[in-house]
């Protein structure tokens, strides 16, 4: 049996004594698996079990190497079409100055315009943990500056020493 659990040739004969054979010529017919294997070998092809759970199991006469190649090609195509979401992280402190906030917000805007998600984090040090309100004020000020280009995914939340919030780019409205 091959690595991907597909039964071919002798594995089919060992698995079952009768198969519904699909050979591309006419209707599928029920034959002995050894006869089906012989027919496949005569054509220079493989006997591949395509539906092992049906009664009787369905086997197909095909070039297994070509079949595997086609499957791999389909997988690669599907992978290419997948969208990878990139998350950029921007850190602040609760005692950050206005000009520093403006500078970091400018970067956040750039990331959002490029379609990236942005994780805003306010780091609380030492005694700042006793009064996280200042951190929430900072993250809310930043959110007010990003409202026009971003969408809030969750409310700011205190997690350990950080206050986190994820923002994503606004969905583009389709013209009708």
Notes on the protein architecture:
The structure is a single chain. The chain is of the alpha+beta class. Helices cover 37% and strands 27% of the residues. The chain is built from five helices and nine strands; from the N terminus they run H-E-E-H-E-E-H-E-H-E-H-E-E-E. It is rod-shaped.
Proportion in helices = 25-40%
Quote the distance from N terminus to C terminus.
54 Å
Order of helices and strands: HEEHEEHEHEHEEE
Structural class of the secondary structure composition?
alpha+beta
CATH architecture of the largest domain: 2-Layer Sandwich
Going by CATH, the homologous superfamily of the largest domain would be Translation initiation factor 3 (IF-3), C-terminal domain
Mean pLDDT equals 88
CATH hierarchy, class of the largest domain = Alpha Beta
List segments where confidence is low: pLDDT < 50 over at least 5 consecutive residues: none
CATH-derived topology of the largest domain: Translation Initiation Factor IF3
Number of domains as seen in the coordinates = 2
Number of strands: 9
Shape: rod-shaped
Strand content: 25-35%
Instruction: Let me know the largest β-sheet.
Output: 5 strands, mixed
Quick overview of this protein structure:
Strands 5, 6, 7, 8 and 9 form a 5-stranded mixed beta sheet that branches. A 4-stranded mixed beta sheet has the order 2-1-4-3. The chain is an alpha+beta fold and 176 residues long.
Which keywords apply here?
four-stranded mixed sheet, Ubiquitin-like (UB roll), 176 residues, Translation Initiation Factor IF3, rod-shaped, alpha+beta
